[in-house]
Amino acid sequence: GAVVSQHPSRVICKSGTSVKIECRSLDFQATTMFWYRQFPKQSLMLMATSNEGSKATYEQGVEKDKFLINHASLTLSTLTVTSAHPEDSSFYICSARQPSLEAFFGQGTRLTVV
Amino acid sequence: DQQVKQNSPSLSVQEGRISILNCDYTNSMFDYFLWYKKYPAEGPTFLISISSIKDKNEDGRFTVFLNKSAKHLSLHIVPSQPGDSAVYFCAASGNAGNMLTFGGGTRLMVKP
Could you tell me which of A30, A17, A16, A15 has the C-alpha nearest to residue A75? Predict the structure, then answer.
């Protein structure tokens, strides 16, 4: 089946620094990718929809200047957490989906800001 | 306003028995439903899906039932195995695009 690869799987960074997370669709072209965030024992919360070649669409309450999304090609979307703070520590997951099919998820990235 | 709800946060069953996970939705525009399984610190993995034109889909030990009039779907796992212990999310999508709306998840524990 289709595979979505997310990297890194785990990152620890200092408060105030920026972290980039990559999401690649390995065997299909994804014009749209999605970025989710999951807090402990909670559901997946959609942060933004990443559109290839155009600006991302952010969900209400998500700071676009803090969570920068770039979808420069049909197989790569990146999420950059800028000026990270401890409250940004979370599990971030990307997904890509072909129309009318199931979505495939990346392995997730555990971000810890110290 | 939660459009997809999983009212049971946890479920415990004995190995070999049936596990039934439930999901309710409110948006009548949803036409495609999916179940995902998630282990801690990993991304969700797809289990099974169903289109709104069907009321049942079966894949091995997993069967999904859809009741459109009740806006309810359920995932049956039989027989349940200890390796099935995980968090299960139902998700729904409509003709508005590729976006999935997730339920809150149900933690399934299968006891040996």
Answer: A30
Q: Give tens-digit pLDDT for B5-41.
A: 999 999 999 999 999 999 999 999 898 899 999 988 7
- Residues A5-64 have pLDDT tens digits of 999 999 999 999 999 999 999 888 887 899 999 887 778 888 999 888 888 999 999 999
CB contact set of B52 (below 8 Å; sequence gap of 6+): B30, B31, B32, B33, B66, B68
**Residue B71, both tokens:** 């806006």
Q: Does B36 touch chain A (CB under 8 A)?
A: yes
Judge: A34–B98 Cβ closer than 8 Å, yes or no.
Answer: yes
Cross-chain residue pair B43–A6, CB shorter than 8 Å: yes
Residues 6+ apart with CB under 8 A from B49: A102, B32, B33, B34, B35, B57, B64
> Which residues in A8-73 belong to E strands, given as ranges?
10-13, 19-25, 32-38, 44-51, 57-58, 67-73
SS3 of chain B: helix, strand, coil, percent, to 5:
5, 55, 40
3-state secondary structure of B84: helix
